[in-house]
Predict the 3D structure of the following.
Amino acid sequence: MGKKKKGKKKKNTTPTRNIFALIDIYNATLDGNYNLVRNLLAHKIDLDYAPYEHGEVPLHVVSDKGHHSIVTMLLERKADVNE
């Protein structure tokens, strides 16, 4: 029997679409909670997925509310401006 190679585990780089995490970041952007948004982004949330049927992604929400520092943070995290 061959030995299994012990290598580094590949990190999951696929953004999550966990509905609870998406709702949390949506609500945090709605409230303009910079620190909470920053902490939630550490979980690699899919910023271009809209959890509600009206289709607003977090970038739309913070743009509409005028939360400029969060807009900048989301753009730095590659949120799609065309979504």
